[in-house]
Design brief:
The chain contains 17 helices and 13 strands. By secondary structure, it is α+β, with helices and mostly antiparallel strands. It has a single domain, classed as Orthogonal Bundle (Cytochrome p450), CATH 1.10.630. The chain has a six-stranded mixed beta sheet with strand order 1-2-3-9-6-4, with helices on both faces. The longest helix is centred in the N-terminal third of the chain and has 25 residues. It is globular. Bound molecules: protoporphyrin IX containing FE. Protoporphyrin IX containing FE binds next to α5, α12, α13 and α17. The site of protoporphyrin IX containing FE (HEM) has 27 residues, from α5, α12, α13 and α17. Belongs to the cytochrome P450 family. It comes from Tsukamurella soli. Keywords: Heme, Iron, Metal-binding, Monooxygenase, Oxidoreductase. This is Cytochrome P450.
Length: 394
């Protein structure tokens, strides 16, 4: 069936610098336009209402990841062996290599190390009084404890942030940002391949499990490189963005900091509310395997690329009251910042553990948190986070 998209089209570009800096007004316009809108500039269908996003994520047979979840052919080819770009049953087998290590029970022994490191960090930062919430605070756990767990050689960690953000730019549409990210994408694949080939993953680590599965022929070498890339890219700046965004939100909402200080048991709720509002991974995409009737007369044709807006859905007023406000007591446990369905973030327990440990350690030591200079946003096609966050604590 041929479907006329013109009645449901918009020329809004979500990937300009202005929109990446403050995407939420455009998301609101698109959500209010209908259950799905065709973005003519990028040949993409936008889903940003909570109910529609959740439904699409639960229906992988219709909204498939097998033709890639990026917004261009280059990334969909480069990452075709990663867990995020395959459907069941291939997906089920690859994902198990993560879930075997990242379940709550499996992570339990690590929680003490994370708490300990977070306490030492908070102690040092509160003594300093002034620091950068990204470089000095949010980088610490992912770059140290987490990469120890993944088994990354220590000498190879300094470029991870650049590789991760360059690669996420390459997931976006074919714009300048994507072109500029290309050298980093190529380097990140070479870099992971080199670590794999030289056998430098720490024995017993998460990464080593993947290398062992390849060694016994359970998965191919390409699968193994793809899975290691998922750790190098997905575990890093997403978590950094979550922690720094949380402190940024607290600095702007001092009454929320005081609510949290009075009740440290709200740490998990504060983390949920942070990632709901400042969703660190804003989008991924799917491809439709059939015509989909979205209701209100909107039909998405088969073979269409659909932009799944986690960030848009998390601010949908149809689902959350006063969606743009930061209120930790609302504890939005059903947010979509970690996705949902078969591809729901496999590292979310670890990310939560890190975020909660840092928030709690800071709240038990700092009476106040304030901005201490201009905040610089890190613009990226897919992620939302900060480049620099000058903070003062007392
Ligand atoms: C706050 C931090 C994080 C956020 C916001 C986040 C967000 C997401 C989202 C939204 C997805 C679903 C993508 C989709 O449906 O297409 C996802 C998948 C994934 N995440 Fe995370 N993530 C975070 C941290 C981590 C960490 C720490 C790891 C690894 C230790 C990780 C590994 C993965 C992997 C491997 C997938 C693919 C799962 C699959 O396809 O089955 N993530 N993440």
């Amino acid at each position: 069936m041929s479907i006329d998209v013109s009645d449901h089209a918009s020329d809004i570009d979500l990937f300009t610098d202005e929109s990446l800096d403050d995407p939420f007004p455009s998301h609101r316009v698109l959500r209010d336009r209908g259950p799905a809108t065709y973005l003519s500039g990028h040949d993409l269908w936008y889903l940003g209402r909570y109910a529609e996003v959740r439904a699409a994520l639960s229906d992988w047979e219709t909204f498939s990841s097998a033709k890639g979840t990026g917004l261009n052919d280059v990334i969909n080819e480069a990452w075709s062996s990663t867990v995020i770009m395959v459907d069941p049953p291939v997906h089920t087998k690859l994902r198990k290599l993560f879930t075997d290590r990242l379940g709550r029970r499996q992570l339990k022994p690590i929680s003490e190390t994370i708490d300990q490191r977070a306490k030492q960090l908070a102690e040092k930062l509160v003594q300093q009084g002034e620091f950068d919430g990204v470089r000095d605070m949010a980088h610490d756990l992912p770059a140290n404890v987490i990469m120890d767990l993944v088994g990354w050689p220590e000498s190879e960690r300094s470029n991870l942030m650049e590789y991760a953000s360059g690669s996420f730019d390459c997931v976006g549409p074919e714009n300048q940002r994507m072109t500029d990210g290309m050298p980093k994408l190529a380097e990140s694949i070479e870099y992971v391949t080199d670590i794999y080939d030289s056998g430098r993953l720490t024995p017993g680590s998460f990464g080593y499990t993947i290398a062992e599965a390849a060694a016994i022929g359970e998965i191919t070498k390409d699968d193994a490189i793809g899975l290691l890339l998922s750790y190098a890219v997905a575990a890093f700046d997403t978590t950094i963005n979550a922690m720094s965004s949380g402190m940024w939100l607290f600095a702007q909402n001092p009454e929320q900091w005081q609510i949290f200080r009075r009740d440290p048991a709200l740490a998990a709720a504060a983390f949920n509310e942070t990632v709901r509002l400042e969703c660190p991974l804003q989008f991924f995409s799917r491809m439709t395997t059939r015509d989909v009737d979205m209701g209100d007369g909107v039909m998405i044709p088969a073979g269409a690329r659909v932009l799944i807006s986690f960030g848009g859905a998390n601010r949908d007023g149809r689902h959350y009251e006063d969606p743009d406000e930061f209120r930790i007591e609302r504890n939005p446990v059903d947010h979509l910042a970690f996705g949902s369905g078969v591809h729901a973030c496999v590292g979310q327990n670890l990310a939560r553990m890190e975020g909660i440990a840092v928030f709690r350690a800071m709240a038990s030591r700092a009476k106040t948190v304030e901005l201490n200079g201009p905040v610089v946003r890190a613009l990226n096609n897919m992620t939302r986070g900060l480049e620099s966050l000058p903070l003062r604590v007392s």
